[in-house]
Hints:
By secondary structure, the chain is α/β, with parallel strands linked by helices.
Amino acid sequence: MTEKVFGKALAPENDPMGSGIASYYDSKDDELCVKVYSDFSEPDDIPVPLLFREENDMPEIEVLALDQCNGKILDVGAGAGSHAMALQKRGKDVTAMDISLKAVETMKKRGVKKVIAGDIYQYTGPKFDTLLMLMNGIGLVGTLDGLAEFLVKAKDYLNPGGQLVFDSSDIIHLFEDEDGSYLIDLTAEYYGQIQYWMEFKDIKGAEFDWLYVSYPVLEEYAATAGYDIKLLYVGELNHYLVSLSLKND
Length: 249
């Protein structure tokens, strides 16, 4: 089923990612890519077929995240719905949410049973036991201030003892000089705060802030917000998976 739209949703003409997802579902064109630009690095491509992968094609960190999910699950920023579908096939009670109307419609067509359209910050429905945010989904908070705000806000979405499950990366290696030192301006904003924008064919999206947060910094913010943090996995280039659980009063 598809419920009402919570808050804002992306219109198709401003939605390169959702348009790419919908286009691939219709065409099965394996060459389709969403172009990603940033204020930090050279343009990159996201192959759209990657977003339609089955569980057996997912990296270990994502499978471990699926293993961690329990109870009623909300897959935030679900995209094409691959993680929600994997959980659904496992017999889990999962709802997929995305701000893209085109992504939501594609998930419905793919067979995701429960889908919500809209902005997670505007969600006012039933609570969940697990909020899943994969592919650095926590990045949507944009900044460290946004992280602090979201960790407090997320308590409104969780049942007692509920958890957030997400991955992120410490991107400090991108600032490493040849001599092993790090070229970081300590007077500037946090180095993990990046600004992105996307294009798909002739569709251009608005600029948005995205956060990559190191594990030590996340530990501090999680403790301040009242969560117990558990490190579940550490991979290459400081890519890690965590569970943040609400502390019992």
